[in-house]
Write a structure and sequence with these properties.
By secondary structure, this protein is α/β, with parallel strands linked by helices. It is 24% helix and 33% strand. It contains seven helices and 40 strands. It has a 17-stranded mixed beta sheet that branches. Strands 16-18-21-24-27-30-33-35-37-38 form a ten-stranded mixed beta sheet. A four-stranded antiparallel beta sheet has the order 1-2-4-3. InterPro entries: FapA, FapA_b_solenoid, FapA_N.
Amino acid sequence: MKGVTFSENTEKMQLDVEIDPLLIEDVLKADVFINYIKTTSFAAFYILKNSIQELVGTVNTARDEGKMNMITWKIGEYRDAELSTHASKDHMSVEITITSAYKGDTPDLEDVIDSLNRQGVVRGISKKRIQRLVNASLESEPGSKHSDIVAIGLPPRRGKSSHIIPLVQNALDRILSPRQADKDKVNMRDLGEIICVPVGTAVARRVAPTNGRVGFTVKNHPVNADPGEWHHIKLGQNTTIDKDDENIIRSTVAGLPKFEKLVMNIDDTFVTEGVNVKTGNVHYKGAVIVNGDVTEQMQIIADGDVTVNGFVESALIKAGGDIIITHGATGKMDEDDCQLYADGNIFIQHGQGLDIVVDKNLTVKKQLAYSKVKCKGSITIGDPKKPRGKLFASKINCAGIIRAGCIGAISGSSLEIDYSEAYNKLCGRVDAIGDLLKDLQRTNANHEIRMTEVHGKRIHNALLSKLTNLTDKLESERVLLDWLRNSEKELREAKVQYEESARVLAYQEMYPGVTIKLNNRIWKAEKEYLRSRIAYEGRVWKYEPII
């Protein structure tokens, strides 16, 4: 711009301009002049807009009057970065905003911390966040704002409520964590000294609630925590509260302890040395412990757990709880004559020629072969911590993760793993509740419109009771609609979780002949794979090595 010369006055920390009115070619405008300054090397100054307005008027007047005197004017200045602080009402967090400097100074890390300390902020300060803000302010354009939360207090943590802990182990817990036999070995056949507890045994204890964790604000003021609540003890079957200690639960019968869903039950227990033609079949409304073998064509049907400290051969066992077979189970292949049905979990040392139906999880310690399995949970062949067992030549219908050391056999025998049945049932429930939800949404929308129309009219006193009844029914409809929405959401989440749990893990090898399917999505092992993971992702089966 002709006739315009800028100069920086470092002593006064300002920007001056010298203008020759006679060289200004056209009427000088403030906004044009300001935009011109931004294109020069002096754009980092804070521009004094009011001063420029006065300058423009003076220059234009001098130009019109033909005055030749040079006009010198202050139009900009240095301005330090601005630091503003905002604390939350509860003083649990502090946010700072730094406005970038105009040729001025920017506070460093220590300056910001000193400023916070002067305001009483002494705890929970993040030096990294402050430094990041300072750096951003230095690197950005003058006048730009940068904000972040730089101090956070510690919120109080509510105390844990009272809860029940078992004082004796479940039989399945004992078998999955066997007793130490010597320094390097464990005895998998040793379930411990106590299986059945005698009358009056302390089987569970209520742990007192905790006081919680005291928090603090950024100004180091303590924030008290709410203590946990005392919860009423829910007594299970055949248990009572100790007369002298209200937090101790004791057994009222001699039986098998079973701690599940924070409730301790004592199953009335039948104990026998074996189940064979001499003893006859066992049908019992409680738990059954067999300290021996279960022979061919015998039956055990129990409402509680069934524990067999021996072998099971071509027999039928049905349990309302868990089935534990500490040695092994075998049946005649293709005849389904060794049947194990459990509403809980099943543990077997090894199995062959079995027909298994289990509502929860199946664990086989060594090997499972030539069997049919229908499992609503996960399947582990081997030690749960390090599965190294073998699974081959079987038909598996599963709803959870399958883990084993070797899956399939070198011979290429067929192993079929199918995730379809439980998935299709879940999808059917999702579709059914989705249809119900759509129908109710349409109906409810019509009812809401009609009710709005009714409330817009004058209602005779004689009809007020009927209107109240309709309002109550509409509210019940809204409640049902919310329940359906939540149910649909939960089912869709369950569907996603099912897909995520549909996976097969071979920690040693996977052999040809293994088929994994979910409806028409099928994966086949065409060759031998080392440590492998087959997972259902994005509606397709994907293979990847386990590293």
